[in-house]
Structure formats: C-alpha cells, structure tokens
Design a protein that fits this description.
transmembrane helix; endoplasmic reticulum; transferase; 68% helix; 14 helices; mainly alpha; manganese; globular; Ethanolaminephosphotransferase 1; 377 residues
C-alpha cells in the first residue's frame, strides 16, 4: 500500500505542506491568539506531543460523557442530568484541544522541526477526533423527545465525516489543503455551548436558537458550506490544468472506501435484527468513526506522498463478513458481535498508526515525541 511505498522512496523528504485557511474567524482571531500562546511553550516541547495531548482531551470528554450519559438519555426531561461541572470541564477541554491543534504547527515552525510525520500525525488524529466530539455534543440534546433519534444522529455523524474527508480529497486532487470554514466555527461554538449548558442547563437547547433553527442543525450546515467550496476548488484546478489526476475515476477514487464503509454500516443499521443502533448507539458510533479514521489516514498518506490512492481498504473485507453475520442472525448475540468488532477496529487502527509513525520516524531519523535526535549506533 502507499504508506509502505513512501517509506522506501527518498523523494518523500521533499514533501512540503501546502494549506489555505481563508476563514475570517481563523485568520483574524484564532491565528493571532495561537501566535500569542505558542510563545509560552518551551522550545524543547515536541509538536507531536502537543497534537497528541490535544487529541487526548477530546477522548477524555468522550469518556466523561460515556460515564454520565452512556445511552444519550441524560438530557431528557425526567432523567438525571449530567452534572454542571462535567459541562464546564468539557468546554475547557474542547477549547484546549482546539488550541493545541492550532499551535502544534506553529511550534514546529518555531523549533524548525516540521516534517511529513507531523502532518500525518496532526490530520490523522483529527480524522479520529470527529467521532469523539460529535458523540460528546450529542449528550447536550440526547435521543429522546427533546433531542434527535440515534439513527438521525448516525446520519449527522456521516455528514461530519464526509465534511472532513472532502478537504483531503481536495488536496489529493489539487495538492493544496483548503481548510474548511465549518471546523473553526464549530469548535468555538461547541466550547461555548458546553459552558452555557453548565450555567443554564440542557433544557435551553430544547428550543430553537433562531426561528425553527436548532443547534443540531449546525452539523448539516457545515456540510452544505463545505461541499460546494470543495467542488469549486477542484473545478478551478481542472480549468487551470493543475489537477493532479486527469481521469474522473482517479479523481474520485478516494471516495470508494468511505462510501463502501457507509453502505456496510448503514445496511447493519437498517437490517439489524435487534435494532443495534438503538441498543448500543455510542459503541456503534465509535466503531464507524474509528473505521472511517483508518480509511482516511491511508488517503492522507497517499496525498502527502503523491501516490495513487488504493481503491479498497483491507478493513472493509472482514466488515462484510461481520455485517452478514449480524443481519442474517447467524451470530445471535448482536451486541457482543458489535463489541468484538469495535475492539478489533480500534486495535487495528492503533496498530496501523503506530506502525506508520515508527516507519516515518526511522526514515527521517527523528523521535515522534521528542526534538532530540535518536542515538546512532
């Protein structure tokens, strides 16, 4: 696969990170703030360690809300609500994660330690972070009469996931990463919403924010903004003859595995004998989000290294068997099957990430979480 080929190709050392961030919130507010924050970081602090710490804040949010609201019912009337301090912590942790995600690249340039490993590490963890912040936000409005159904949230999750991969699809075709406007707006908004929830309670979000516009509708809005902008950027590159892939098949090849993942996971949702999405929504979302991150990471490696995207991710092959076992009822305990498959997906993704990081670290003769050079034999 392409991730192994780039490690044996010395031209990988010539790769340069090219990104465009035109969001006014990011340009005029967040970047000046991040430039201010990065000055307080010690110069020995590795950028990848900053990236990983920010990611773990999102995982911590997910675990906190899993403890207090595992089934997404705590926000409904008549149920014991999530304690206010949890929402305060969630707001702080989310903003810290967003801030660290913004300063890691600045720290890399400040310490002259920018590498393709940093780009892969940053965007790879971002792809996995999607599921953690979506599931955490869901606890604000929940699944019962005051919120949205777990199946609806499943499709909203896919809106977020496809919004993320669109940016990397653009880079695969144009060589430039156009950062989506929806990301910065959503992160600032989510952080504020957590803090407001701690003060006024979850009941506030039962009512529309403006007219009939509910807070959950922000997810779909981010996609409606991102999709036309992505298509416009690719079309512009095509007209100027700077599109990296001339054929339509090659241009849309990165979408094959994500679409197949969507089809397989949706078949399981629709045809589940025990209605698994209702029984175990959090675990199902985690499985889908992690599998998506694995598929996306392989696209990120390919667009970093200017190599052809593989048509099919190997993880989808056993998933076909798992879905067939579930929907046909051959494996009677569907919940157990989901837990086993989710554990496998998580371990497979971690193994893939660790392997690629180790290989890139060896290739560039660097340490992933330190600015010191490895000891040479």
């Amino acid at each position: 696969e392409c991730d192994h080929r780039i490690l044996t190709n010395r031209s990988v050392s010539l790769l340069q990170y090219s990104a465009v961030d035109s969001n006014p919130l990011s340009v005029y507010v967040m970047h000046p703030f991040w430039n201010f924050v990065v000055k307080f970081l010690p110069t020995w602090l590795a950028p990848n360690l900053i990236t990983f710490t920010g990611f773990m804040f999102l995982v911590l949010n997910f675990l906190m809300l899993a403890f207090y609201d595992f089934d997404f019912t705590a926000s409904a009337a008549g149920h014991e609500h999530v304690p206010s301090w949890v929402w305060v912590a969630a707001g702080i942790f989310n903003f810290l994660a967003y801030t660290l995600d913004g300063v890691d690249g600045k720290q890399a340039r400040r310490t002259n330690s920018s590498t393709p490993l940093g780009e892969l590490f940053d965007h790879g963890l971002d792809s996995w972070a999607c599921i953690f912040f979506v599931a955490t936000v869901y606890s604000i409005f929940g699944r019962l009469e005051s919120g949205v159904g777990v199946t609806t949230l499943y499709y909203i999750l896919w809106v977020v996931l496809f919004s993320f991969i669109l940016s990397h699809w653009e880079k695969y075709n144009t060589g430039i990463l156009f950062l989506p406007w929806g990301y910065d707006i959503s992160q600032v908004t989510i952080s504020l919403v957590y803090l407001v929830t701690a003060v006024v309670g979850v009941e506030t979000w039962y009512q529309p924010i403006l007219w009939h516009f509910l807070y959950r509708d922000l997810f779909t809005c981010s996609f409606t903004v991102t999709l036309p902008m992505s298509l416009y950027n690719v079309l512009k590159a095509h007209r100027s003859n700077t599109l990296k892939h001339s054929s339509l098949y090659e241009a849309f090849l990165p979408f094959l595995s994500p679409i197949l993942l969507f089809v397989l996971s949706t078949i399981w949702v629709v045809c589940s004998p025990s209605n698994i999405i209702e029984l175990q929504p959090r675990i199902y979302y985690l499985m889908v989000g992690t599998a998506f991150a694995n598929v996306t990471c392989k696209l990120i490696v390919c667009q970093m290294s200017n190599t052809r995207c593989q048509p099919l991710s190997w993880l989808l092959l056993p998933m076909v068997a798992v879905v067939l076992l579930a929907v046909t009822g051959v494996f009677a305990n569907e919940t157990l099957l989901l837990y086993l498959w989710t554990a496998f997906v998580i371990l497979a993704h971690i193994h893939y990430g660790v392997s690629v990081v180790q290989q890139l670290s060896g290739h560039f003769n660097i340490l992933a979480f330190s600015l010191k050079k490895p000891n040479s034999d």
